[in-house]
């Protein structure tokens, strides 16, 4: 096992290649331990160099609706009416505190994500 910190793109590519080779190693073997350590190193490098931005509240709602195979009509109970659902999802109206509470329960989204500020459509 020759593990080093990942400091460059070349190091990253080498680590990915080696991780692919040892990924399915049987548990308890040195190769399995190496895969665990390489996984942590690769994850940290990717977090630092390829950050994924958190979606804004409306994007998060849309993503979660897709995951749960929900349609706009399914959120009427949260927003109060079909037109209100449309206004929110089309960024013509901001979410209220009560809507955020309901969405947290209905879609299992974090309140911290839903209270993030976002721009309304012009």
Automatic annotation (TrEMBL):
Gene Ontology BP terms: regulation of DNA-templated transcription
Query: Which ranges carry the HTH cro/C1-type domain?
Result: 61-114
State a single Gene Ontology molecular function.
core promoter sequence-specific DNA binding
**Which PANTHER family is this protein grouped with?**
ANTITOXIN HIGA
Name it: Antitoxin component HigA of the HigAB toxin-antitoxin module
Q: What organism is listed for this UniProt entry?
A: Lentimicrobium saccharophilum
């Amino acid at each position: 096992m020759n593990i080093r910190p990942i400091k460059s793109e070349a190091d990253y590519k080498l680590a990915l290649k080696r991780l692919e080779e040892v990924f399915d190693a049987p548990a308890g073997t040195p190769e399995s331990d190496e895969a665990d350590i390489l996984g942590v190193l690769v994850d940290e490098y990717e977090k630092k160099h390829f950050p994924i931005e958190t979606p804004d509240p409306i994007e998060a709602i849309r993503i979660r609706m897709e995951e749960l195979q929900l349609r706009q009509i399914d959120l009427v109970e949260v927003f109060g009416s079909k037109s209100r659902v449309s206004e929110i999802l089309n960024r013509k109206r901001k979410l209220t505190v009560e809507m955020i509470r309901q969405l947290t329960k209905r879609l299992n989204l974090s309140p911290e994500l839903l209270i993030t500020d976002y721009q309304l459509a012009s």
